[in-house]
C-alpha cells in the first residue's frame, strides 16, 4: 500500500524518539557522573569519600528491595515511587564505579556501560545485525529468544558447570528458584515434587495458594525450632555441591 503524503512514518518517528531520548539521557547521565565525582573528590562530601564497595552493599540491597516494593505494593506499580527508587539504584551503580575508578586495577563507569551495551547487542543479533549478515533464522518468539540466550551463554562460559553462577548470598527462595531453573535447563535431576500435602493443605494451583502453603511451612518450621531461611539455603547449597560436576544434557 502506498504511503499517504504527509503521513508520518511510524518507524521513522520511533527511530527519532529513540535518538532524542538517547541524547537527553547522555546529557543527564553525564551530569550524574560528574556530580558523583565531585562529591567524592577532595573538598566534596566526607561521607561519600570514605565509602567502599563493602560499606555500600547494604544500601544496594535495600534500594533493590524498595524497587520491588514500588512495583508490587498496591496491585499496580507506583510510578512516581518507582522512578525515585530506580534513581537510587542507579546511584549505587555510579557510586561503585567511581570508587572502582580510583583503583589501579579497577574500572570506570564508561567501561561498565560499554560492557553492558556490547552484551545486549551481542545477545540480540536478530535486532542489531539483521542488515549486516545477521542470521536469517533469528528467533522471533520470547521462548525462542530465551533458548538462543541459553545457547549463547553456554558457549561464552563453556568452562563453567551447569549450576555455576548462582549468587551464594541470594535470599534462600530466590537462590532455590535460580538453581532449579538452571538444573531444569541442563537436564539435571531435581528432587521429586510432592503429590499431596498433609494437615489439610491444598495442593497449590495459584500463587495465592502456593503462598499459603509456603507460609504454613515456615510456620511449621518455626514451631519446631527450625530456621526456614537457613534450611532452604543450606539444602540448595548441598544440591549445587552434589551436582556441580554433572554434565549438562542440553
What do the pLDDT scores average to?
Answer: 85
- Quote the beta fraction: under 5%
What helical percentage do the residues reach? 55-70%
Poorly predicted parts = none
- Please give the number of β-strands: 0
> N-to-C SSE series?
HHHHHHHHHH
The shape is: globular
Radius of gyration: 24 Å
Helical segment count: 10
The CA-CA distance between the termini, in Å, is 45 Å
Main beta sheet: none
Secondary structure class reads mainly alpha
Keywords:
250 residues; mainly alpha; 10 helices; 64% helix; 0% strand; globular
Tell me about this structure.
With 250 residues, the protein is mainly alpha-helical. The protein is built from 10 helices and no strands. It has helices spanning 10-40, 46-50, 53-72, 79-101, 109-122, 125-128, 142-156, 172-186, 207-223, 228-243. It is globular.
Question: What's this entry about, in short?
Answer:
With 250 residues, this protein is mainly alpha-helical. The protein has ten helices and no strands.
Give the helices and strands, then pairings.
Layout: H1 10-40, H2 46-50, H3 53-72, H4 79-101, H5 109-122, H6 125-128, H7 142-156, H8 172-186, H9 207-223, H10 228-243
Helix pairs in contact: 1-4, 3-4, 8-10
Amino acid at each position: 500500500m502506498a504511503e499517504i503524503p504527509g503521513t508520518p512514518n511510524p518507524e521513522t518517528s520511533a527511530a527519532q524518539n529513540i535518538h532524542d531520548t538517547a541524547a537527553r539521557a547522555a546529557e543527564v547521565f553525564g551530569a550524574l557522573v560528574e556530580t558523583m565525582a565531585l562529591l567524592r573528590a577532595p573538598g566534596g562530601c566526607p561521607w561519600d569519600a570514605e565509602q567502599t564497595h563493602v560499606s555500600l552493599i547494604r544500601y544496594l540491597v535495600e534500594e533493590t528491595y524498595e524497587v520491588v516494593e514500588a512495583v508490587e505494593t498496591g496491585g499496580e506499580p507506583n510510578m512516581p515511587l518507582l522512578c525515585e527508587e530506580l534513581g537510587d539504584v542507579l546511584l549505587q551503580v555510579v557510586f561503585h564505579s567511581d570508587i572502582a575508578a580510583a583503583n589501579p586495577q579497577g574500572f570506570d563507569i564508561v567501561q561498565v556501560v560499554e560492557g553492558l551495551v556490547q552484551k545486549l547487542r551481542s545477545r540480540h543479533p536478530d535486532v542489531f545485525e539483521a542488515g549486516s549478515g545477521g542470521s536469517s533464522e533469528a528467533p522471533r518468539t520470547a521462548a525462542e529468544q530465551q533458548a538462543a540466550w541459553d545457547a549463547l551463554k553456554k558457549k561464552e562460559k563453556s568452562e563453567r558447570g551447569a549450576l555455576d553462577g548462582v549468587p551464594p548470598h541470594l535470599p534462600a527462595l530466590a537462590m532455590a528458584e535460580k538453581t532449579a531453573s538452571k538444573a531444569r535447563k541442563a537436564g539435571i535431576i531435581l528432587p521429586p515434587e510432592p503429590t499431596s500435602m498433609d494437615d489439610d493443605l491444598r495442593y497449590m494451583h495459584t500463587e495465592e495458594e502456593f503462598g499459603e502453603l509456603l507460609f504454613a511451612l515456615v510456620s511449621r518450621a518455626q514451631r519446631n525450632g527450625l530456621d526456614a531461611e537457613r534450611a532452604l539455603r543450606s539444602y540448595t547449597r548441598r544440591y549445587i555441591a552434589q551436582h556441580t560436576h554433572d554434565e549438562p544434557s542440553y
